[in-house]
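Support reply, case 0932

Customer input (verbatim):
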Amino acid sequence: MRHDRSHGTAISLDRARPRRRSHPRLLRRGETGGGGGPARPRRDDAEAVLVEHYPRLPSVLGLRLFPGAGGDGEAALDRALGGVSPEVRAAFALLVLEERDTVSAARLLAAARVREPAEALKEAGRLRDTVGRDAESLLQGAQFDPCTVQTRPTDLLRRRQRTRLAALAAVLAVTASGVLVLRAAPATDAPNHAQGPAAVSTRATDPQQLVRAPAQRWADTARVDLTTWPARGTRTDDTNLLARALGAWSTGGDRSGTRVIGMAGTPTDPPVVPPRLLYAGTVDGSAVVLLYDEQRVARYAEPLVGRAPAVLELARADDTDVTTGAALVVSRNAGTARFLLAPWIDQGSVRDLRRPDLPARPLTVSADGATISVPAVQGDCGRVPVVELRSSTRIVEDHTFLLADLGGLAPAHLTWTPGPGTGAPARQPREATSLAGLDAWARSACTLPALRESGVRAVNRWEFARQSLPERGGPADWTCLRAESWEGSARVTVALEARSGDALPVRGPRPEPADTAACSRFGQHMLAGTYWTAPSGTRYYLAAGSRHLSALTVRGAVSATARGPALVVRTEDDGPIRLMGTLPDSARLHGWGEQADTGSEASQGRR
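Our regenerated output:
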């Protein structure tokens, strides 16, 4: 027990509260809610449900009970949470308190009968970004603690009834803020497959429950993504085929002999809500079904001839948009792929990313949106085929973009951020379909094969600095290639590119991080350096940074200082270097690869 400044009493109810009662939590069907109450009906033992209790405080004679008071931050968060739905508050708690990823959080929300888990998570993500990094510490404060309540007597003569308070206060569920604090029994990211098919929601495996979007929904909605794709193909009414596809997903292929593949670490768990049907038809001698549970795309393919087993591939595809939800692989054979295009795509073509001077070839598309076979990006970099698509004017005017098939079910979106001095402020990535964008990507095309089958969602090329090479070597670009994956991480490759086409990778003393904020809106300053040998054989150390750097300093095998964002030093050494840049606010920026995180002590700011 502790006292606050207003002479109220804060009572901790951790031990007074029954273990399974009075606060929102995840219960398995068949468990009691605590206190010896009757068991819930047992339909699907492993189907989780969210038991919600309305946020109300206990009533105690002689005492006023109210939540603990917080500071300005807690009050602001309380107001923000009060302005969103219970579903969003639950999603917020899962992301912030439970630290779950979007896939497992979506499964829990869906099991709790939340109709649109993806929408709730998207809104919760926006709320988390607004609150900032203090969100978790604020939620752990007394104001949001469901086990603590402030008390104040209404009648001093009744203070002797404290024993009564201890008994009645055990029914306290949540604070008056209405935050749903989810505390589940020990859980895993995947259902218990040992329980067999009964552990899977029967609705999620029933072909009659498949969600089908209206044919023209994409043209009149604020959400243009995979959820607005209508069901297409010649076998959308083939209940037996759809049942086999759902059955393979729900059992992990155990019963049907289907080979199940989770691409780039994608979970292969069964769907917990009825998926959306995107396509069902015959393609290249196989019956193909495309399904979407708003987190993952599933492609089921069974050969029509022969005894080869059916294959079920699953890949992450959450939070798609006009570009990342514009195409899905419907068939893949011998280094080629056929795509199913989004209904908002009016026109498509194929081009070689290494040859921007060559015109694009028109892409033939069937009536149901399937393309002819398109070569995939291969490892030899002799040719780097990409698809150029144009969106319908019904949703956006004059919008074309590039997609590269990197071995996943959804091709990667290629964008470009031009460097300084090009006449446009380099603040946001833009489509790489202009002549300048295509010319820039031609010099980075050979980096794409290394990204195959790694779950890449989008790749942006940022030319963060431009520098003249010594001895009239001509201009060169310092580039940062940022490859973002569907699961949220991002890898960065930095290079010095001469206009002749030669590229020199920049590597620091530390291994390149598997995840970094560098070259994103959360890491908008960049500095890199490397040794370079001129055609004459003379050795130089070159360094350059993004536009806001005011000075560079290099120490180690080479020692020099330069004003501005670029530095050139003639040297005969090639030892370790410590590179440091200065920003206008006197913050220091380390050279790329010299720190374990983003390489920066000041990663925020404008490009």
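We compared this against your earlier run and they match. Two observations from our side: DSSP finds eight helices and 31 strands in the chain. The first strand starts at residue 2 and ends at 3. Please reopen the case if you see a mismatch on your end.
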